[in-house]
Design goal:
The chain is of the alpha+beta class and 497 residues long. Helices cover 40% and strands 21% of the residues. A hairpin with a 4-residue loop joins strand 10 and strand 11. Helix 10 crosses helix 16, helix 14 crosses helix 15 and helix 15 packs across helix 18. This is Carbohydrate kinase.
């Protein structure tokens, strides 16, 4: 008898993966690929629909070549959220999909930010440049012919869901990014009205739970992807929710931290609360919310520094098969007992503030070396996470904190985060949290488990507990206070530049 597996497709902004898991959570096969995208103009970030689908098909065909001895019983997709995809009456993209890295609608977001209080009371979140509502408002002003032909709007994973199942729709985690009433967890006419987009309410897609079976693989899709004809397709979900589930966060009181391109900090709750400090969005079913504080300011800053200023060491590590975090940790350990003189703002790709803040080092002197700079980067990344996490802890029940992301491979950074938070953190032994969380959604949807808690107990991984280090805590908490004070002092320069 063949081992049963479910496939989780995890699509990021620059890369994507399709991974088959057995029902104990073991990886049986995986395949990765780049996520095609274009930047045709400054501040634009787009993806051509057919190129996107072709890349997914190729990835799935390669995966299926590794699964001849397994029985595939279901498939689902998670992907980067926000941005927008617009389809015509034949369910074809009217224009390239707009990604969440796109900032063309910055001025538009400022316009609607004047309605912040009304937006919070209705949708649970303010306007941002990459939010679907802001982008649709920009399109109304700049590409009215596109919206005139629109018959549906959706998100990246919904486009792949359509190509897999030939059903149009979205799920709770994506629908709640702009036009949802955050309390009722359903489309709200007032939300459309606040963005001057009332005419689009009639084309809002059907909303499913992520675990709902929405269709099955048809013959044409089987030919293009290699997926078995007839297997069920579930609705899927936003990748940050999938990552939280893969990390073991499935019920209220659990806070998930993802340190990657974005600083993602999110806590599950049984009651909604709104604030300008976080997005209040729906989770996997009505009656659950994911309260999400994010900014594009996390470990990608370290990756940039290493690739730009440590290329020789990076090449040596790659040839030796050594994790690059090994040499970073070594250099930091040599200066670990030195005072945290240098402050680093990890804002290379964006920031959590309401101004166009820059990344920079402050406090450098001639006696500092590269190890001090790397230590400051580690601290700056931890500080930005704390900046987001503190309001969540103050306003929600937080029983445990689960942390995932490449930087958790460091032996030093997790201790820094635990120490500056003064809380124990858990590091799940999982390398593919987004795909695993998606696979769990599939397994629950097709009836292999009664709910996500049961799926997590069976398919989830063990976790390593990291406690605050008294020695690190003694230095890092005052350093965080300095970080906040420097940010306060430099804010006027950022605002007026």
């Amino acid at each position: 008898m063949k081992t049963k597996v479910v496939i989780g497709i995890d699509i990021g902004l620059t890369g994507m993966k399709a991974i088959a898991f057995d029902l104990k959570g073991n990886i049986t096969a995986s395949q990765s690929a780049t996520s095609p995208h274009d930047m045709p103009k400054p501040h634009w970030s787009e993806r051509e629909g057919e190129d996107f689908w072709a890349a997914v098909c190729k990835m799935l065909r390669h995966l299926m070549g590794k699964l001849e001895n397994y029985e595939i019983i279901g498939v689902g997709c998670s992907a980067h959220g926000d941005g927008i995809w617009i389809l015509d009456e034949n369910n074809r993209p009217l224009r390239p999909g707009i990604l969440s890295l796109d900032t063309r609608a910055f001025e538009t977001s400022l316009k609607y930010s004047k309605k912040l209080e009304e937006l919070l009371l209705t949708t649970g979140q303010g306007a941002s440049p990459s939010s679907p509502a802001t982008l649709l408002a920009w399109l109304k002003e700049n590409e009215p012919e596109t919206l005139a032909k629109a018959k549906s709007f959706m998100w990246a994973k919904d486009f792949i869901r359509y190509r897999l199942s030939r059903t149009v729709g979205t799920d709770l985690t994506e629908a709640s990014t702009s036009f949802f009433n955050y309390k009722k967890q359903e489309w709200d006419p007032k939300a459309f009205e606040l963005y001057d987009l009332s005419e689009l309410e009639k084309i809002a897609p059907i909303v499913n739970n992520p675990t709902d079976i929405v269709g099955s693989i048809g013959y044409d899709t089987h030919i293009h992807t290699g997926l078995p004809e007839g297997i069920p397709v579930v609705a899927g979900l936003h990748d940050v929710d999938a990552g939280a589930i893969g990390a073991g966060a499935t019920h209220p009181g659990q806070l998930a931290v993802m340190a990657g391109t974005y600083s993602i900090n999110e806590v599950i709750s049984a009651q909604p609360k709104v604030s300008k400090d976080w997005f209040c969005r729906s989770f996997i079913r009505k009656g659950l919310w994911m309260n999400m504080a994010i900014s594009p300011a996390s470990s990608s800053n370290l990756e940039w520094f290493v690739q730009t200023l440590c290329q020789q060491e990076l090449d040596i590590a790659k040839r030796a098969g050594i994790d690059p975090y090994g040499f970073v940790d070594k250099e930091i350990s040599e200066v670990a007992d030195d005072p945290s003189d240098i402050v680093f703002f990890p804002f290379l790709y964006g920031n959590p503030l309401d101004v166009d803040a820059d990344s920079c080092f402050m406090g450098m002197r001639a006696w500092h070396n590269r190890g001090h700079l790397l230590k400051a980067i580690y601290e700056g990344i931890a500080f930005n996470h704390k900046y987001h996490i503190d309001p969540l802890i103050e306003n929600f029940q937080v029983d445990e904190i689960r942390v995932v992301g490449g930087v958790t491979r460091s032996s030093i950074w997790p201790k820094m985060l635990a120490s500056v938070l003064d809380r124990q953190i858990l590091i799940p032994e999982v390398s593919e949290g987004g795909a695993l969380g998606t696979a769990m959604i599939v397994a629950v949807g097709i009836g292999q488990f009664k709910d996500l808690d049961e799926a997590a107990k069976t398919m989830g991984s063990k976790s390593i507990a990291i406690d605050p280090d008294p020695k690190i805590k003694e230095m890092i908490i005052p350093a965080y206070e300095k970080y906040k004070e420097y940010m306060k002092q430099i804010y006027p320069l950022w605002k007026n530049k």
